[in-house]
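Hi L.,

You mentioned the student needs an example of a multi-chain input paired with its predicted structure. This one should do, with 110 residues in total across all chains.
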Amino acid sequence: MERASAPTFYDRVYELVRQVPAGRVITYGHVALLLGAPAAARAVGYALHNLPAASDVPWWRVINVRGAISLKGRGSEADLQRILLEREGVPFDESGRCDLATFRWDPADT
DNA sequence: GAGATGACGGGCT
DNA sequence: AAGCCCGCCATCT
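Structure written out for the whole complex:
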């Protein structure tokens, strides 16, 4: 459902994630914070949950505050996300975590 | 209109 | 140290 005259929080999430450069990641909480809702991390996750496959949004660059992937969906997408990130230059350790202090992107950091 | 959901986060046990 | 519980927000059915 598109609401051009009333863009939902989702649309803002997509737009922000779309600005994340390759080799960088961002946390749900940080995205929510940048959108003005520091506690809306859940809503952010929900946004990507409803993310249309046709969108050019690099959802895989969005991870939790731990620098890991929480995807419950049977690995297929979770594993894909890790592969995509490693392919862009974001190394994951055996715990499935990456160094947020180094790879967490920030619009003000650019 | 109300209830249930969800890729989270932080705090407490 | 790890795990469990609660709470937050926005959207969806």
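You could point out the following to them. The longest helix of chain A spans residues 76-88. The two ends of chain A are 32 Å apart (CA to CA).

Best wishes,
N.
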